[in-house]
Each structure stands twice: as C-alpha cells, then as structure tokens.
Amino acid sequence: MIPYVLKRLAGFVATLLAAAAVTFLLLDALPGDPARFILGINASPEAVQALRLQLGLEAPPLERFIRWIGGMLQGDFGLSYTQGAPVSALIAERLAVTFPLALAAMVISIAIGLPLGILAARRRGSLADTGLMMLAQLGVAVPNFWFGMLLVLLFSVTLRWLPPGGFVPWDENAWGAIRSLVLPSFALALPQAAILARVMRTALVDVQSADYIRTARAKGLTMGEAVWRHGVRNALLPVLTILGLQFAFLVAGTIIVENVFYLPGLGRLIFTAISERDLILVRGAIIVLVVGVTLTMLVVDLLYGLVDPRLRVRRASR
Amino acid sequence: MSLLEVKGLGIAFSGRPVVEGLDLTLAPSERLGVIGESGSGKSLTALAIAGLLPDTAERTGTILFEGSPLPEDEATMARLRGKRIGMVFQEPMSALNPLMQVGEQIAEAIFLSGDRVGYGTQVLALLDEVGLEPQHRRRYPHELSGGQRQRVMIAMALASRPDLLIADEPTSALDLVTQRQVLDLLDRLARNRRMALLFISHDLKAVAALCPRIMVMQAGRVVEAGPREAILGHPRERYTRMLVGAARFRIHTLANAPMGDPLFTARQISRRFESPSLLFLPRRAGTLAVDAVSLTLRRAESVALVGPSGCGKSTLARIIVGLDRATDGTMQFDRTVYHGSDLPGALRPDISLVFQDPFGSFNPRLRIGASVSEPLRLLPDLDEAARRRRVADMVEAVGLSPDMLSRYPHQFSGGQRQRFAIARALVTRPRLVVLDEPVSALDVSVRGEVLALLHRLRADFGLTYLVISHDLDMVRALADRVLVMSAGRIVEEGRPAKLFEKPEHEQTRALLAARLPEL
C-alpha cells in the first residue's frame, strides 16, 4: 500500500507542476505584452512600462516562473490589478462560498444518484427502472442554470421557502448562509446525480451476471442479498472514477450557477476577472481550481487503492 | 429414499428447448458423472437442481430433494442451497469476489449454513481439509493460483457439510497436474464426508476416474446412462462410442521418423522479465522465465516441449517465432542467426504459430477468409489468383470447404476454428510450425480429429513441429522426441516411450503421476 500511495502523491505533485507551467506559459510567456493586455490598447507607453516594472516582467521567464511558484508556496499570489487587494485574500473570501457549494452539490448528487441507480438496477426492466432512466436522461440533457431557474420559480417565487439569490455571509448569519446555498447546490447536483444514477445502474447490472454473484447465491444468499453484500462494492469501482471526473465539471458549473443565483463565489470572481483582464487574479484562481480538482483525483485514487486490493502492490503469491 | 430425483426436466429459453425429458436419481453418498460437450445442457441441468437458473429460463418437470419438491420461494431455496447443496464452478478466476479476502468468503458460507459460533477455527479446519495453509485465509483471490482458488471454492462448498456436492467442470480451467490434485481432493472429500456427488465434465477420463455411474448427454437429452464399466466397455449408442474412442488417443509417431539435418538451433537462450521499478525504491531483480535453454530441431521432426503452467514454455515459443526477444543467447534457423523479434522478414513465412484458443485468436469482425489469407502479406510476389488458390488448397487440406471462407468466426465450432487456425499457420508453406497447446481448448471428442489432421499435414508437407503442451497423452500421440521443462530450464529429454517408462527428473515424474488412468 505504501508504494501505491507514494506513486499517487508523486503523480499529484507532477500534475500540479505541469498545470502551473501551462498556466504560466499561456498567460505570461506567450507573445504579446501582459501589461499592455491588462491596460488596453489606449494606455500610454509610460503606464505600460510602469506596470511592467510593478509586475516584474523585466526578469527572464524561468526566473519569473520560479518566483511565482515560490510566492504561491508562501501564500503570496500577487496583487490584483483591478481590485488592488492581495489575490490570496480575494480567493479565500470567495472560497468560503464556492467550497461549501461544491461539497454540498457533490454530497447531494451521491445521495440521490447512487440509491436511484441501485433501485433501477435491482428492478431492471420494470416501470420504476424505465421511469428513473427517462428522468436521468432528462437530468443529463437539461443544463444546470435552467434547473436553477425552475427551482427559484418553485421554491422562492411560488412557495417562498428559500431566497431566490444573493448570499448572507457566514459570520453574519450561518443559518442564512446555508439557506442561500440550498437551491444552488441542488441546481448543480441534479445533472451530476443523473449521470451517477446511470453509471451506478450499468455497473450493478454488469455485476449481477458476474460469476462471484452466482457463487454467493450458491452459498445460500438470495439474489438481493448477494448483490448487496458482494455486488455493490464491486460496482462502486467505475462509479468512483466518474465521481473524480465529475468534480471538475462541478467546479466549472459553479461559474454559471453562481451567476444565476448572484452568489459572491470563486466562479463569479473568475468571470469578472476575465472580463476585466485581471491576469494576475485569473492566474491565481486557476491554480486554486487546479489544486482542488487534482486533490479530488488524488483522493479518488487513494480510495481506489483502499477498495480494490488488486491495485495495491502484490504480495509474493505463495 | 433417493437424495435427489429429477423427473422429466425441461429447460427452455423463450420457447426454445435446451434440455428435454431429463431423468436422474441420486442416492445418498452416491456419485454420478454427467458427460457431454459444451452446449449439451449439462450445466443448465446442474443450475436447475440448485435453483440457480437465470430468470429468463422456463423450467418444466419435477425436481425432488429428499422427496419434496424444490421450494418456489427464493429465500427458502437459497437457505436450502446454503445448508444442503454445495457447488463448485469452472471459473476459478472469476467465481470469487475479488474485493474480499478468501477467509472472509469461506466464513460467510459457514455463517449461512446456520453455524453462528466459532467459525474462525472452522475456516482453518476447512483450509486444512482442502490442502491450503492457514495464512491463505488473508489472501485476496488475485493472490492465489488457479488451483488454490479452486480449493477455496471447494472449501466454501464444504462449509455447510452438504449432502450433495455439484461440481460443474471444476478442473477444466486448470493445468493437468493441478487438475489431478483437485480430482483426488474431490474423491477423498466425497468419500470421507459421505457426500453425494454430481460431477459434470466434458472429459470422459475425469468422469470415469471419479464416478461409478455415468450419464451421457447430447443436445439437451440423455443419450445413455449406466454403470461406468458398461458405458466404457460396451457403449450402446453411436455418440457414446465416439466419445469413448476420442478419449483414447491413437499413437501417430512415424515408425521410422525421417531425421534430417538441423533446421533450428537455440543456444543458451534466456529471457528475463524486469519488474516495473517503483518510485524511489531500487529495482528488484526480475524473474528469469527462460534460463539458458539449448535445443535443436531436425527437419521433419516433431518435438514436444512439456512442463507445468508457468515453466516458461510459452515464452520460449514466442521467442522462437519472433514475437519476443531473448535477453541472452542466439538462435539459428537454417543459416540465419537471430535473437527473436529481429527475425528477418524474409524468414517469417517459414515459421508459423498455432495458438491455443481458437475463439480468441480470430478477429470476430473479419471474415474467416480474410484472417486465413492474412499471412500471405509476407509473400508479396504472389498474385491475386495464386493467393486465392493457396488459401483454397490449404482450407481443403485441413478438411474444410472453401465456400466457408466468407463466413465469420462465430459461425463455426471450436474444432472448425482450430482447423482454420491451422490453415492460417500453413498458408505460407512454413517449414517450422510451433503449436501452443493446439487441442487443449477443444472438446475431447474433436481433439482426436485435430491430432490426426496435424499428423497427416506433417507427412504431406514435410513439416517440423514444436508442440508446446502439458498434456502427456497428446504429446505421446504427436511427438518423436520430448523435452521436459521446469522453472525455465530443460531438465530431461528423450523419446516418449522411454521417457514415460523411466522418468528420471522429478518434474517428469510429477507430470506422469498427474495423468488420469487409461479407459
């Protein structure tokens, strides 16, 4: 198990470095002057030169890259040009919204998707199965911002149970903060839950015809018991892979959903930063997102090793 | 009262019958062997007795267990299985849950049999009874060999002290040495525990070794049933006579084998596989699959390379035909020196390989004609008409019709496919043919035919054979000379008759001891 973990950790660090290098190259070292890009074409040459000095663009690219990485390791992401505040503070403030949002969406999609997938697989061919899979098809097809608007119509406009948008900061009213995150989390989670349900159903249907299920039944279990005790854990393996990939889509989804619900989250921060050409802020936010996604992949990989003994390093076979 | 009584059993899938009018009875501690080819309905019969038929199957007739019909209710049937009926299946690779230690899986079977106390010691006792070590209980299935997994399966089947053990092809996926061990184990356990045994196999020898009563099945019906001596000695039905005949290999070695000059020589061939390096950790020493092997094949000679699974014989074959490269040593074919994958293109038509699995070795999306003519790409000088003639001649030589060439692989039986595989190997008119277990994936009834065909082709085309196998009966039927391989080395060599009479090396003796008694 230890070599497996070491290998995954090394892969994690390598991925982060590669992502950082790509981000740096795309935004910084490619032809064209970042300072001029930030200031726009009408800026005076003096202003551009001043900004170049302020951003440290005179130094060679490799040195700048190393300085950038070193700075981030100490928590220094640079100064946002448009907001005049440290990028790290801006991101931290926004993460307090986006992180709970993504986490809640993930939990909700698992809580909805897996049981429905299991139910559909156990009742394969029944009305419940057909109905659930049609719903799942719909869930995959309909975009999350549309879900968001429908949810607002029902729960805020008609029933008046939850706020239609905006965010109450945590330190002001934690209950209010949670309430303002409920609808966005569901809007984000539903399409993911639909995908999860489909994957879980397929995996479990495959598992039901596996030889070890027949063995388990031969031992004296009914089909249902055999699937529950031996099938589900095996079927979770493909589901885990999808979960890891889904997190990246969830994060991308927050950008849209935060805009629909007027949430001051990381997604909206990036959205504004891009439209205001704040490259420093964009760069820092991208790295934070990359860390989040890669970290999820790492967790998934480690879980894989925990669930599947075949992935751990083989003991001597005799 | 009989333990098991089946009357007029019929099984159908969407109205199409696959088993019809099947009767059988089994007294307590009696043994019945069911023999038949794949598709004869013998496995479905076993599943029906255990109440494990797929939901899509329609069952008719009655099955009485101790005089009462099998319960309709799924849970009651499951408990009956758990307490009274043990089952062992064919697939040792996939029949165990890959995510669970085997000890836990055995413990579950004990628990389900109603024993809720002290199953830790019972697991150990069961492991001991099937010949496994106590530490094996903490292993996962992938950490065990095929034979060990089959022992785990048997331990699970025994956990409930069943009155009836159903073994469905329990040894077909195992190599011969392991097969013999598992058969002996089943024999001993059934005797000690006074279990009734329903033993299902396509291997008449295995059935005859274990069961005093035999039932022959073909196409869903019972052809013939009776005591072992009657079935083997005086088979009444044509099909039974054919099965019995096929189980007795005729010896095909040429009386005066034409020993030509050396065609192929290997000098000190070794192949080392490096284990993948782990990050930060030093590379561990690799395994030496082939260890300084030297051998010579003379023109028109048939040489067998025998040894247990994992002894390196297939790796050696891959090196000889140029699919892999030796890490040390050289080989010479005719006058050309090579090391394996550097075999020159001009020589490739001269060396062919016939694979073990006639199902996996054909691309399912290609017409069989396209697969058979594919090696002719090695002979670019042939024009289209000559190519077609070559393929047609070779297909006729293996006893099939050229009309079949436009069909797809799944439309043929295993025996027909192996004939096509042989035609594919011979279409370039090679001088050396390497046959890797050429008949072990085939039903016993067609093995004899394929062996006779190989023998005839060898005489007609003056071929040199290198036969890779662990099946000594097949080897004796086909080879002039035998090389015994063990742990990557050739440990003994000789003519089959002499070697089988006076085996010197312990590996040869082990292989000989694993043979089932002659019919």
Provide an overview of this structure:
The complex is a heterodimer of chains A (318) and B (519). By secondary structure, chain A is mainly alpha-helical. In chain A, 77% of the residues lie in helices and 0% in strands. Chain A contains 12 helices and no strands. The longest helix of chain A is centred in the last third of the chain and has 38 residues, at 223-260. Residues 314-318 of chain A have low confidence and may be disordered. Chain B has a domain at 262-275 and 284-513: P-loop containing nucleotide triphosphate hydrolases (Rossmann fold). Chain B contains 17 helices and 20 strands. Chain B has helices at 42-49, 74-84, 102-112, 119-129, 146-158, 176-193, 204-210, 228-233, 238-247, 313-320, 368-373, 384-397, 414-426, 444-461, 472-478, 496-501, 506-513, and strands spanning 4-13, 16-26, 31-35, 57-65, 68-69, 85-88, 164-168, 196-201, 213-218, 221-227, 262-273, 287-298, 302-306, 328-333, 336-338, 351-354, 432-436, 464-469, 481-486, 489-494. In chain B, the strands form 4 sheets. A 6-stranded mixed beta sheet of chain B has the order 6-7-8-3-9-10, with helices on both faces. In chain B, strands 16-17-18-13-19-20 form a 6-stranded mixed beta sheet, with helices on both faces. Chain A binds chain B through residues 3, 6-7, 10, 210-212, 214-223, 225, 229-230, 233-234, 307-310, 313-315, 317-318, and chain B through 50, 52, 74-75, 78-83, 85-87, 89, 91, 94-100, 108-109, 112-113, 139-140, 142-145, 153, 156-157, 159-160, 278-281.
